[in-house]
Design brief:
Blueprint lengths: L5 E2 L9 H10 L18 H16 L7 E6 L2 H13 L6 E5 L2 H12 L4 E6 L20 E5 L1 E2 L4 E2 L11 E4 L16 E5 L10 E6 L16 H6 L9 H17 L2 H20 L5 E2 L10 E5 L3 H13 L2 E2 L10 E4 L6 H18 L1
Parallel strand pairs: 1-13, 3-4, 3-5, 5-8, 8-9
Antiparallel strand pairs: 2-10, 6-7, 9-10, 11-12, 12-14
Helix pairs in contact: 1-6, 2-6, 3-4, 7-9
The protein binds pyridoxal-5'-phosphate.
The site of pyridoxal-5'-phosphate has 12 residues, from helix 3.
Length: 360
């Protein structure tokens, strides 16, 4: 495996090596079916068993009860920006959105386009989205509160989730899906495109509390109707069969690591190593405010854009890839999703110390 790079891509992103090996091993003959997973009917017994197992596995990792159901949908998190207001709006009620970054504001724009009443009680836009706005009051009778649990571009993450009483809490967890333990019962719905922390692109997990399914109106596009997809166990039409299969393997990988608490510990160790390095001198300038730092996407700047270019060029030459920050923020971003190893982060930190010595 000497030719595999140390992959800090923001998404699609690194996946556990053992998962990739399992995919390779099973690819030509999935479970004795004599064909690959991408050649078999989504109506077959073998595939149906896979969906049933994966639906439960996804809930099991953090303890979502049978009051919830996992849906496997397509269209990425971007489709959910529209599906959430289409399904969860309630006549006479206003939806609330916390604006903690550009994905959050894209979610707002879809609600606006659909003509749904909404309010943004808090935003950190004026401060370059350096922090999670946590000081806000929502309407007691809001249709739902939408948050983005991790802001992939800025490297900020909710450290704890708000209690919302009877107001359904909805979270876009695309970039920190199952990176740490959280209380599932706080949420009415979470969604995440698989391609950052759970699998390949093409499948989106939606975990919805079943009582909310009643809200889906009949007059919305079928492809976005939660109630129909729940009733059909995600098999209303052809799903991303390969995507669901890889998500299944990644969930099993989390269990093999010792479960979500072990994965969280690994993520905290990796993030600490990087943040300690950023904090140990003025050479590296972290973007996110300390109280809002992400475990998954770690962002920083250097003294000049030229120095940043040099940093990325030298890092790439040493097989550290995907470190260029998002174009809206610039600088450097290291995405250290679940599958990134502590060793990979240690190697990057060694490189950073060396780079600082030579250029500081
Ligand atoms: C990547 C990302 C998205 C967009 O996901 P798609 O699957 O490409 O639609 C949305 N929200 C967050 C938080 C993301 O990180």
């Amino acid at each position: 495996m000497a030719h595999r790079v140390v992959n800090f891509n923001a998404g699609p992103a690194t996946l556990p090596l053992t998962v990739l090996q399992k995919v390779q091993e099973e690819f030509l003959d999935y479970h004795g079916e004599g064909m690959s997973i991408i050649e078999m009917s989504h109506r077959s017994k073998a595939f149906d068993a896979l969906v049933v197992e994966t639906e439960a596995l996804v809930r099991e990792i953090v303890g979502f009860s049978a009051d919830y159901q996992t849906l496997f949908l397509q269209g990425g998190a971007t489709a959910q920006f529209a599906a959430v207001p289409l399904n969860l709006s309630v006549a006479g009620k206003t939806a609330e959105y916390i604006d903690s970054g550009s994905w959050a504001s894209k979610a707002v724009k879809e609600a606006e386009k659909l003509g749904k009443p909404y309010r943004v009680p808090a935003s950190s836009k004026a401060d370059a989205y350096k922090y999670i706005p946590t000081d806000f009051v929502i309407g007691k009778d809001a249709a739902y509160l939408h948050i983005t649990s991790n802001n992939t571009i800025y490297g900020t993450q909710w450290q704890s989730f708000p209690g919302t009483g009877n107001v359904p809490l909805v979270a876009d967890m695309s970039s920190d899906f199952y990176c740490k333990r959280f209380d599932p019962n706080k949420f009415a719905l979470i969604y995440a495109g698989a391609q950052k922390n759970a699998g390949p692109s093409g499948v989106t997990m939606v975990i919805i509390r079943k009582d909310l399914l009643e809200r889906s109106p009949n007059n919305i596009p079928t492809i976005m109707n939660y109630q129909i997809f729940a009733k059909e166990n995600s098999l209303y039409n052809t799903p991303s069969t390969f995507g669901i299969y890889v998500v299944n393997l990644v969930m099993k990988w989390i269990k093999e690591q010792g479960g979500i608490d072990k994965v969280e510990k690994m993520n905290r160790d990796k993030a600490k190593l990087l943040y300690d390095t950023l904090d140990s001198s003025d050479f590296y300038k972290p973007h996110a405010r300390k109280d809002s730092r992400s475990l998954m996407n770690i962002t920083w700047r250097l003294g000049s854009e030229d120095l940043e270019k040099k940093f990325i060029a030298e890092a790439t030459a040493q097989k550290f890839i995907g470190l260029k920050g998002h174009r809206s923020v610039g600088g450097i971003r290291a995405s250290v999703y679940n599958a990134m190893t502590l060793k990979g982060v240690q190697q990057l930190v060694d490189f950073m110390k060396d780079f600082e010595k030579k250029n500081g």
